[in-house]
Amino acid sequence: MAEVVGGVASSHIPAVGVAIDRGRKAEPYWAPYFAKLPPMQEWVRELVPDAAVVVYNDHASAFSLQLIPTFAIGTAVEFPIADEGFGRRPVPAVQGHPELAWHLAESLILDEFDITIVNEMEVDHGLTVPMSLMFAEPAEWPCPVVPLCVNVVQYPPPTGNRCFNLGKAIRRAIDSYPGAERVLVVGTGGMSHQLQGERAGLVNEAWDHRFLDLLVGEPEQAAAIGHVEYLREAGSEGIELVMWLVMRGALDAEVREVYRATHVPTSNTHNGVLVLENSGGGPFP
Amino acid sequence: MSAAASRQYDDIPGTVVFDARRSRQGYALNMFCMSLNDAANRDAFRVDEAAYLDRYPLTAEQRRCVLERDWLGLLHVGGNIYYTFKLAATDGMSMQQLAAKQVGVPEDEYVTMMLAGGRNPDGNRYVGERERADRG
Q1: Which of A86, A88, A152, A153 to mutate to test binding with chain B, by most B CBs within 10 Å of its CB?
Q2: What number is the ipTM of this complex?
Q3: I want to staple A187 with a disulfide (CB 3.0 to 4.6 A). Which of A222, A235, A244, B91 is the partner?
Q4: Dihedral, A158, A164, A165, A166 alpha carbons, nearest 10
């Protein structure tokens, strides 16, 4: 049977992709942030996952206001890289895992998560920046990916609690998958940031660390945080943190925090990375 | 809770939440921005902005905001930041440059604020919060 072997959460800031793609990692602005990544990267390298479920949001790339799925799963063989308005990132196309993805879709829908099935989809920085952070700059990505999109562009996004419960349903689906895949679950986005309006640039480090503490140790409390608190305390785009709750729900009820690092500023953002391992005590009830 | 009752976020200063009201108002505007994902469309827009905008049923104010690059104004006529960023990117701007324009400060001032830890949430959670604090 397939197995969830760990979780990573990471911001997915587009400027990080630009810094990587243009060879700027050693520049003074970027070096302190990239210096914080090796513990996560080494953990992922030693883990050697067979597949990754990457929870991210599309930023008006594959989806527009024409069609706004709250949750969507990519079932394609391959996901091309999107042009988001400034050209395509020069990274490999993302290989899908149709068999696992379709199993997830079937399992989730029968588990009453009515997820949208996407057979053709380009992927944007929301997915590719965390891939670059985890896997550096390979000619081909080392494992296939099941992209799982969460709407956080059109208000309201799904609640944190709904995302947490989706994660639990993903865990049930992976646990019931007949393959032997060792699956990494990745939550992306956040942490506190606001890109729009006169309040742009908001960063709330204290709130973010409290969120991380709750996410690790008291996830039900993290899941209970309401939208208005995210907007007010973490900024209008900080609400992306609900996607970290999907990852958390897919892990064991008890986890070990392997690594945490945060950095201010990256562009307009409090940039974070978190690595969690299962305790072995089993999933959430 | 009804959607209207949950709009408690309207008292967050300097924040335009892209909810149903804005989405309905800004559909054509955002779909124009979406079209800039295509390099050929970006070129066509650059050649003749006004003619390109004729393809979309924009209001006069939305059209003005696009042509004058009124970045803050775009949010108030239904623009969503991920969409308006495509217009900014077409102009060669970064998200940080776009943020500074919306805030209405020079880019270096905005960058300095970010390097110092970003905008402090204290005093920025509620409209009128600072004024009330000043009054004691």
Answers
A1: A86
A2: 0.96
A3: A244
A4: 70
> Does residue B66 fall inside a structural domain?
yes
Residue A97 and residue A144 in contact, taking contact as beta carbons nearer than 8 Å:
yes
The number of folded domains in chain B is 2
Q: Is residue B100 part of a domain?
A: no
**Together in a domain, B28 and B86:** yes
- Output the pLDDT for position B131: 72
Q: Which of these is catalytic: A12, A97, A103, A125?
A: A125
Looking at CATH, the fold of the domain delimited by A3-198+207-266 is given as Protocatechuate 4,5-dioxygenase; Chain B (3.40.830)
pLDDT at A239: 97
User: Quick one: average pLDDT of A170-183?
Assistant: 98
**CA dihedral in degrees (A112, A255, A227, A224; nearest 10)?**
80
pLDDT, tens digit (0-9, with 9 covering 90-100), for A130-149 = 999 999 999 999 999 999 99
* Pick from B75, B86, B121: CB nearest A202: B121
Cβ–Cβ gap B15/A85 under 8 Å: no
B75 and B112 share one domain: no
CA angle A104, A174, A133 (to 5 degrees): 90
- pLDDT band, very low/low/confident/very high, at B129 (cuts 50, 70, 90): confident
Domain range enclosing B32:
17-92
- A123 touches B at CB < 8 Å: no
Residue type (1 letter), B62: Q
